[in-house]
Amino acid sequence: MPILRSQTALKVHQTTERRSVPRIKGPFPAVALDVAACKETLGVRTVVEDLSADGFYLRLAYPVQEREELLIITQISQAILILRGEVCRVEEQKDGTYGLAGRITRHQIFSSLTGDSQLERKILRS
């Protein structure tokens, strides 16, 4: 007759860091547009502090609501990124600004022509 082991479930403590996905560190200059609310300005200048394949962290001078949609335009090296995201967390900073953690819902990457003067001239002539 086989020996039966106890079927008691062991609790496994999850020690995974919240930011387990690799990130690139900024700051990267950016413009943030509030998609949900109509603001007086088209967009505000900000910086993306860090970026991963599925999220971003940036700073704004004013708070936004969790689940609010943002459109972020930033440049990393010679790539221009357009990110549509949803605010997951808002943290008031000591300096009075607000740190926003966002989840990327859509993205698009464009190549910047900066640095390739021959290609720029060809495009401008056509």
Look up the CATH topology: Thrombin, subunit H
Quickly count the helices: 1
When the domains are counted, the total is 1
Under the CATH scheme, which class? Mainly Beta
Q: What fraction of the residues are assigned to beta strands by DSSP?
A: over 45%
Shape descriptor reads: elongated
User: Can you identify the CATH superfamily?
Assistant: predicted glycosyltransferase like domains
Main β-sheet description? 6 strands, antiparallel, barrel
Q: Regions with pLDDT < 50 over 5+ consecutive residues?
A: 1-17
Description:
By secondary structure, this protein is mainly β. It contains one helix and six strands. The N terminus is likely disordered.
Compile the SSE list and pairings.
Elements: E1 24-34, E2 44-51, E3 55-60, E4 69-76, E5 79-92, E6 98-111, H1 117-125
Antiparallel strand pairs: 1-2, 1-4, 2-3, 3-6, 4-5, 5-6
